[in-house]
Amino acid sequence: MNILLTLLLAVQLLSALVMIGLILVQHGKGADAGASLGGGSSGAATLFGASGGSNFMSRSTAILATVFLSCTLALAYFGQAPQAEAGTVLETLPAAPPTPADQIPAAPVAPPAGAGQIPAQ
Q: How far is Cα 25 from Cα 27, in angstroms, rounded to an integer?
């Protein structure tokens, strides 16, 4: 179970980092206005096909978001599951052997010196 949680956490972290990178690389909606005036390059169109890089990057981001969400839900589910072998630290400690102080009987306590001078009613 511990290996599964570690694997889920690694996939979640990796998908989050790649998704952040993809989002930062994508062009915004306002970037097309500058490209129509002649300031843009067509490098993305030739690299990712005729439809451009926006479809590829948008789909990749959506897939990574789905992977991230499913890993998050799985980690939340397994995090709430009760652990049968889990216990407190005190339950796992062995019983301590008796100390010599526990084996010595308590001495009787003598009454205070002035207790005999108080009259009884």
A: 7
